[in-house]
Amino acid sequence: MEAREASGTQPRTERADFQATADPALMEAADRTADVKLLDYKELYELWERQQWQTQELDFSRDREDWHQRISPEERFQRMYGLSSFFIGEQKVAEELGPIMRAAPTEDQKIFLCTQIADEARHVRFFERFYREVGVLEADGLSEMLAETSAHLNDNFGRLFDEMLAQRTARLSVEPEDTEALVEAVTLYHMVIEGMLALTGQHFIMDFNEREGTLPAFVEGFQKVARDEHRHVAFGSVFLREKAHQDERYKQAIQRTLEESLPVADGVLSPPWAEEDDFELFGYSLEETREFAGTCLMRRLKVIGLG
Predict the structure, then answer these.
(1) What domain count does the chain have?
(2) What is the reported pTM?
């Protein structure tokens, strides 16, 4: 699954802490069979306890030097699309998780989703610390940072988060017993936003910085963010597998949500400054990015029962 192995680094998908999440995208066996072992909700909670980390332990002094002295203004501008997508994306999904958590049918599911809310809040603080201590923006307050960095996003980002995801969580807020709406929300959140967009972007951003030897503290923290995301996607995989086997209408809800959201998600992969599809971002073409994201999604769907 590694498009290119960063020089001198262990392939990320083979890291023991990543493998511990049992995210199907990390399993080559998922290319051949849907019968792979996933962690249950209690096991995912226990893994969360073992995989704790603190944003306050990161020292961004070298990253500040890299950002202002080693990275050119043009490259900083290009990097801002990926950074802004994650910073604002983490804040938005943290807001939308509450209705999903309250609609979860079992207590074990609710408890795990509470840990995910805590994770997403920590991810927001991670980006806030990076932006502030590296001096990425002129704004200093969290709300002001989010507003300033939003200028780097494209329209598809807003459609995916502010329309598609928000509509489903709004419905769950008033009808938490609507399991079909919950299946749609988990499909969009865990499979598309986290599973395809976030983890794909994280992979290429970390790989690029490792090859360039830049932003070491950011990479260290982002590795932990990615590990959290693999654990979240593992939850989505086991939940959707259960629902797809429980009732055909839930399988149809997964398929319907994917058909609606995947074209929009594909549009999120292209920064607003890219006029054609032959651009490179973080040293990779759009086609390479699509291939990586597609492989991850197909492995997860096969395990869920839709491959």
Answers:
(1) 1
(2) 0.92
